[in-house]
What does this fold into?
Amino acid sequence: MGDPVASDKTRSDGQTISRAVAILKVLAERPGASFGQIAAQTGLPRSTVQRLIGVLNQEGLVTKAFGQPGAYLGMELARLGARVRLDARALLRPFIEDLHARIGDNIDLTTLQGDRVFVVEQVASNEAIRVISYVGLEHPIHCTANGKAHLSMLPRERALELLRGPLKVCTPRTVTDPQAILRDIEASRATGVFVDDEEYSEGASAMAVPLPRFGDDDFALSIAMPAQRFARLRDEVAAALLAVREKIVAEYGKSI
It folds into this structure.
């Protein structure tokens, strides 16, 4: 049997940490928030907020401006954050491999740099007839599944700026009207997946999902395959992508 005293202490410590994190999140969104405002946002008693902010202040994680009632994030957080070096490829590789075990076609992890989409990690298809990709490949943003997924993460004005064009016509199905592209993206938000149905390359289709933000970068994960196979496996591909995204969010949160 476990030690009930130790178990109670573990729960208490976990609760204290969760409360402290909730306070830090409020201060990240509302710098200078008062104890009362933090209490209202977190649902914690004001006395608890005051006590935890005192502890966080001692550790340099929160600072209180002299003569002012509010609190701010402390410089120790910035110092710790500066030492973090996130390698999205390493963090996401196990999830990509699990996805590949379920759907054996080409998988791309992409990031947005300016107005260009780049493949930063890739697992090749197991199929004899396949879509070929490679790390370093650049995708157009307007007519690819991962490009649309990246656009879905941007404010509308920024997305329109990237779609200013002129946009290249890659196939007879390529859409080049920015407003039409954004309507397609908005409609796809309901499903959570973004599709390229032979818009980038004739005979090839793809589906993508946006991923949590890693540092300052947006990432998207896509599966590409011959259009005929895509038509047959479309629902399965969507389910697999949404499932792996859910696992990534559960592991790392909505942003890191």
Q: What stands out?
A: The radius of gyration is 23 Å.
